[in-house]
Design a protein that fits this description.
Elements lengths: L6 E2 L13 E2 L3 E2 L14 E3 L2 E10 L5 H5 L8 E2 L1 E3 L4 H7 L10 E13 L5 E3 L2 E3 L6 E7 L12 E6 L2 E2 L5 E7 L7 E3 L6 E3 L6 E8 L1 H10 L2 E3 L5 H12 L1 H5 L1 H6 L5 E10 L2 E4 L20 E7 L8 E5 L8 E7 L10 E7 L6 H10 L3 E2 L5 H12 L9 E6 L9 E2 L4 E2 L19 E5 L8 E5 L8 E6 L7 E3 L10 E7 L9 E5 L9 E7 L16 E3 L6 E6 L9 E6 L9 E4 L1 E3 L4 E7 L8 E6 L8 E5 L1 H4 L8 E3 L4 E3 L4 E2 L5 E2 L4 E2 L5 E2 L10 E5 L4 E4 L3 E2 L5 E2 L4 E2 L5 E2 L24
Parallel strand pairs: 13-35, 19-23, 36-43
Antiparallel strand pairs: 1-22, 2-3, 4-5, 5-8, 6-7, 7-11, 8-11, 9-10, 12-14, 12-50, 14-33, 15-34, 16-24, 17-23, 18-23, 19-20, 19-21, 21-22, 24-31, 25-31, 26-27, 26-29, 27-28, 29-30, 32-33, 34-35, 37-41, 38-39, 38-42, 40-41, 42-43, 44-45, 46-47, 48-49, 50-51, 52-53, 54-55
Length: 747
């Protein structure tokens, strides 16, 4: 580029290092949140030689931190292993809470190494893992547990929790106290959320004139680079010195010149500074003063070696002899801060063709990597740049073009068309006519990763780059709920209709001042073909079953040619000699439904259970079972005793210290403060979930998968689990419908 006629700004960019801790590129938390008992340096307790002191900040309490058991492990229940996170263990054990002061002091009892079996346990909304084998150092907390004297009245009404994929469903959370927004819990460990690069920029290693660069940006919903303040200026400085400097390696080496020149949006019109496309108003405090007093446009230059050498230069806006690279930023009007780019990189167990890659990503709930626009392509470039596997491996994408023409290309299996008007993907030279698929790779002499065509039946390698949709951006939060006036606060989310299983998973409702009131609900596709790769589940919702009855579960067989064995996956909360995986037999009916029969559980079983088909990880149900005989002796009408606060959690439709009283028709809650609509069909079609260990059930008087079947004559209560003490009784309350002298023998 000829810049002999350009002038230079007098103020330079300055590098500023941000000392915040970035964990897995996902979210920022204090370093102390990730200390384990084994690795932390903690203060001795002067009053107890066998104890140590540790400080936990309440900021550790985030859903990602608590839900991720693979990267942030927890093993134990009251006694914890040395490789457990201290703050997470303290939350699990009820020793600290998020509404406490900024720092919570923990007193930890040190114990010597011992051979221990750490069973899994779900407490205070956190699940600890199962750990068996070698001796471990173990630890206990000496603090008193949080003194919660009552259950904050909180419940979830879930409409259509087993949903048809072309219909929406909703979750309503009710409480007498303030609530956090309803959150989906990401159950698939390994998925990462790209949240870096707040400038939302993109570029491409092609030299353009200024007008060509501007058109490239505009065609991709952006404009030439702009920044609002000195912080964003420093972020841009860092990007130019690191990421772009690496991605443009070929451009620098091929020209034997380390200088990179980019067009930016700053220009002066009528001696007034402004940003191209009027993206934002120019901030005079930036103090970018160029020598030229006339009207001009600008470029930015970086050589990557000297931080002080990054400089802004002006040039005549209509000068077509000046060439540089486009440096774009999304327009403010199209930026969606709530939408995440969700991806994962991992190795498969064997090399596979495109169909095998699609199946691999599908089993994780996603698709082979794809991009909808230039900004997403920029993210893909940076992710690949920062992963060492891409130094020697290629990776399949979902791009297909039967005619080898870009205008006919599309990403499979999402069936998203490749937008040929977005000039952002670089293709290598086309080869054979049978090469209708594309993979990403990087040759020795290239910078950006290019798309190379390939026969989709070719087995490439074991590296997998998958992406999935962001359900969070599709969920609609609302504080307006359709219910009668009662003493409750209400939040609602609507889960959109989807052609895939994006909204499958678990959702939480959390009061802002209690650990005892955390409630979970679940969302399952009606067809039963959703994917759960890592069994058993880390979270579950308790569904109440009698233990002397088998659990019957049906799968709809979509492909009549498929023949799979059935598997039952169990994660035991109690000691057992059984294996974690037990093979079952399937009966197949004429309707092509597979049914697993005769699954029974011993009296003291209280574990997480998932069902799957062999080879295809097609899960049909996930549940945590509640033992009636263990809990029901203390509480009436299917209430569950909660030892943490020494009280009964009453089934929907009942209240009292022992759940001995019936609520008015259509009301539920620990003091009957919640109401669901209906006349003689109160709460029909609702799965009602209460704090653990109660779990989920239908409202009293209903049963069935969708809670829409009336109790048969002679039965009453939630899920119609109780038998009337007379020939006929009210299906909601159990009170006998009296005929003559019949009531002398009943309630």
């Amino acid at each position: 580029m000829d810049i002999s006629h350009c002038t230079q700004t007098n103020n330079y960019f300055i590098v500023v290092i941000n000392l915040c801790l970035l964990i897995q590129g996902q979210f920022y938390l204090p370093h102390v949140c990730f200390m384990t008992f084994d690795t932390v340096s903690i203060m001795s307790d002067p009053l107890n030689s066998n104890a140590t002191i540790f400080i936990c900040p309440s900021s550790c309490y985030t859903m990602q931190y608590l839900a991720n058991q693979q990267e942030y492990p927890l093993f134990g229940n009251e006694t914890y292993s040395g490789n457990s996170l201290i703050c997470k263990s303290a939350l699990h054990d009820g020793r600290i809470a998020p509404w406490q002061q900024d720092n919570s002091t923990l007193t930890i009892s040190n114990r010597s190494s011992q051979s221990s079996t750490f069973i899994s346990s779900l407490r205070n909304g956190i699940l600890s893992g199962k750990l068996i084998g070698n001796p471990y150092f173990v630890y206990r907390f000496l603090n008193h547990r949080i003194n919660e004297t009552s259950i904050p009245d909180v419940a979830i009404e879930h409409r259509g929790y087993i949903y048809s994929q072309n219909q929406s469903s909703s979750i309503t959370c009710r409480s007498k106290s303030n609530l956090y927004p309803i959150q989906s819990i990401n159950m698939d460990h390994g998925w990462k959320y790209w949240k870096e690069n707040r400038l939302k920029y993109f570029t491409i290693p092609r030299i353009y004139t200024r007008n060509q660069s501007l058109n490239f940006c505009l065609n991709n919903n952006g404009t030439l680079m702009y920044w609002a303040n000195s912080t964003e200026q420093e972020i841009l400085q860092s990007i130019l010195l690191t990421t772009i400097h690496q991605l443009f390696h070929f451009q620098r080496t091929s020209l034997s010149n380390n200088t990179l020149t980019f067009f930016i949006g700053l220009k002066q019109i009528n001696r007034i500074k402004r940003w191209e496309s009027n993206a934002i108003s120019y901030n005079e405090s930036l103090g970018i003063n160029l020598i030229n007093d006339e009207d001009y446009c600008t470029i930015i230059q970086s050589d990557g070696f000297n931080a002080q050498s990054i400089r802004i230069l002006d040039h005549k806006c209509d000068d077509t002899t000046i060439y540089g690279y486009s440096l774009c930023r999304l327009l403010p009007s199209v930026i969606d801060d709530g939408k995440n780019f969700i991806y994962r990189l991992e190795m498969d167990n064997q090399s596979k063709n495109l169909t095998g890659v699609i199946d691999f990503c599908s089993e994780l709930g996603g698709y082979p990597i794809y991009a909808n626009n230039a900004y997403e392509w920029q993210l893909i470039q940076e992710i690949m740049l920062n992963d060492s596997n891409f130094d020697s491996f290629y990776v399949y994408t979902g791009l297909i073009s039967e005619t080898k023409q870009v205008e006919n290309a599309y990403w499979i299996p999402t069936n998203i068309s490749y937008n040929s008007s977005l000039d952002f993907i670089q293709f290598a030279t086309p080869r054979g006519s049978d090469r209708i698929g594309y993979h990403l790779s990087k040759a020795d002499d290239e910078s950006y990763y290019l798309l190379y065509d390939i026969n989709p039946n070719s087995s490439l390698n074991k590296l997998r780059f998958c992406r999935k949709n962001d359900i969070q951006s599709l969920i609609k939060q609302s504080s307006s709920c359709n219910h009668k006036s009662c003493l409750s606060k209400c939040l609602n989310i609507t889960l959109p209709s989807q052609s895939d299983d994006t909204r499958f998973g678990f959702y939480s409702c959390m009061p802002k001042n209690s650990l005892a009131g955390i409630v979970y609900t679940q969302s399952f596709p009606e067809q039963g073909d959703f994917i759960r790769p890592n069994l058993p589940m880390d979270y579950s919702v308790a569904l109440r079953r009698n233990y002397n009855q088998p659990l019957i579960l049906s799968f709809e067989q979509i492909d009549q040619d498929l023949r799979y064995s059935c598997y039952q996956y169990i994660n035991f909360d109690t000691m057992s000699t059984l294996n974690d995986t037990i093979k079952l037999f399937c009966n197949e009916s004429n309707t092509k439904n597979k049914t697993m029969n005769g699954i029974s559980f011993k009296k003291d079983f209280n574990g997480l259970v998932s069902f799957s088909l062999e080879e295809k990880r097609m899960s049909g149900h996930h549940t945590r079972f509640i033992d009636y005989q263990l809990y029901d002796s203390r509480c009436q009408n299917q209430g569950i005793y909660y030892s943490y606060i020494n009280k009964c959690i009453c089934a929907p439709g009942f209240y009292g210290d022992q759940c001995q009283y019936s609520c008015p028709p259509g009301y539920y809650g620990q003091t009957c403060d919640f109401h669901c609509s209906g006349d003689d069909d109160y709460c029909k079609g609702l799965l009602i979930c209460l704090p653990d260990p109660y779990g989920c059930s239908c409202y009293t008087g209903w049963y069935g998968t969708n809670c829409n079947i009336s109790c048969p004559t002679g039965l009453y209560g939630p899920d119609c689990s109780y038998q009337c003490s007379c020939l006929d009784c009210n299906r909601f309350t159990g009170v006998c419908n009296c005929n003559g002298t019949e009531c002398y023998q009943g309630n």
